[in-house]
Amino acid sequence: MFGLWSALHAFPDTPHALTVAILMPLALCGLYFAAGRLNRAGDKAWQQAGTVLLGAFVVVTFVWAIAFDSSQASDFGIYYRCGTHLQSDLAAWMSSCRSHFFYQPDNTYWTRSLVYSAPFGVLLGDHYPLFKIYNASLHGLTMALMFFGLARLKGPRVATIALLVFGVYPEWFYSVTLATPDNLALLFVVSFLLLLPGLGSGQRVVLHVAGLAVLAFLANLARTIGPVMIITAALWALTFMTRGQWKRMLGQLAAIVVLYWLANVIFVQVIRAPSQGQFDLLTRVSTIDISQPGQDFRLVFAWLDQFLPLLSASDRASVITHKILLEFSHGFADYPGYLFAKASILFNGMGYFWFSSNPLDLNPDSSSVVKTITVPVGAAMPAVLIASMILQLGLAAFGMVRARRDQLLCASIFFMSMFYVVALGFGDTQSRYSLLIAPAIAIACAIALFPADTGRAEPGTARPSNIPWAGAGVLALAVFYAVGSVLAAKLALRIPVPLTQARQDAPYQLADGTPCNTDPLVFDSSYKRLKVVAPARSTCFRFSVPLPAQATSYTFFVSRDQFPFPFEERTPSPYHYRVEQQGVVLYDGELGKDIVRWHKFNTLQGKETAPAGPARITFSVSRTGPENAAEPFELWLLTPASKALN
């Protein structure tokens, strides 16, 4: 429902919205009458229609792949380059298979390339036309698996409708000409959703357990969605276990988790993979900024690539936790609006359409594999894509309230829900990411139209309506956000935010007689960031930040105002700064060409000679560059602690 409303909000203009509003009912009527004729003909006609539809989709996919070309922008350029330009030295290849936007080693790109584009590169090398055929083959295999798998589980009606919905999903079709691991990941997602309902059947237990663990492992390599699958399996098992089988179900679930974990450990040991870049859940959550639904990627990259690597192992968890608490305590009331804004991005249906049909921008990760982009573009295409997205989301929402406790539908709902938690709740969001839940949406749409078919494999599980439960769920969410907002507001009052209490100190003189701090400073502060702006003519200034009375130690970051990428010029910082507390110098130095520096100190309250009273940290800053080099002096995440540093 949330995605449906956000997709409606994403229409480019009113005329297109009105046009689609007129044409969509006509399309639905046509689909309804066609389905009615097939119903009268029986399951055999549905099977034949689905087979013809599958053949048509496969033919169109291959024709599209042969006829049209796209440049490989941004991440797609990395996947294509890494997969088609292999090296004999695996360590050297892993080191080179990285984004130009990161300073630190990252294993996201080479793991995805290893399972997706590298197998093609080993056999055929750098050959873009054949690479498109490879993508088309993955598409055809995924659609065939969905159709024949659903036909066996739910019958030909559900299989045919699900195939139709999946085949016209906006993000699916346009990914054929791009080197994106989603083309492979969707094969794993479809396999996982079809295999999960068999977990509680008691038949072929070893096959189901091993298969689900392997699929989660491969999906994690291809698209980092293994944890989403594991949690989906856990939710599904908890929902459908009975009193007589709960021990067996929990045992199977534990076996899946252990096998998944072992597969990852063995992979790291065999391939000798570096651990850098495998951001854990806590780190991923820490990138959230509720004030900015459209995240500033430069700032997100800086946090992951320049701030976090500076932290010691003993301080990492406390600083990350402090940031997360600050974000949610000061922004939880705005969280629904934050989710809606991100959902409007996720469900606009134009991610892969834009990447496949637009020329490259100035991105060092991009690869120009063709001279001319030939993917067709029309002025009405954005509206058509959004309309298709709205239709599918509407049917999926209808299916969720119409059919209850269907095992395959619940597996799809749980998978979508966990994806929403990651993509909308905490991580960065792009419209192309919605492709990962396209199979789940298609299954929900098909069950919405033919809920009676859910009894084919699960006698007695189909129910006529689930509207009361849906209403109760909406009410529960409303209560959750109301209570959460109150608790977050109370938490915000208890969590110290020293940066918002910074103040300018009295004027002073340097040893050479230069007057300092004579002009007023401008403080631009929030709960996590403090920008201090001095007039261009000021060469030195001083300000102080208070600490809570109970603090015995504290940490903070000093940073540049801008966060240049590795391929951008890095100029020396114009500032030299000294950190003091009650006349005791704790640090005296400068950033130089560093972008970020992390400091941690004990407060003088922890010493017997310290005078009583609140502690204030004093920053004495001098500027060495010319006036036109002035930039804000910045502090981040001043984190007080009640435990003294060793």
TrEMBL record:
The keyword Transmembrane applies. The chain crosses the membrane at residues 15-34, 46-67, 133-151, 158-177, 183-200, 212-238, 250-271, 335-355, 375-401, 408-427, 433-452, 472-493. It comes from the Bacteria. Keywords: Membrane, Transmembrane, Transmembrane helix. The keyword Transmembrane applies. This is Glycosyltransferase RgtA/B/C/D-like domain-containing protein.
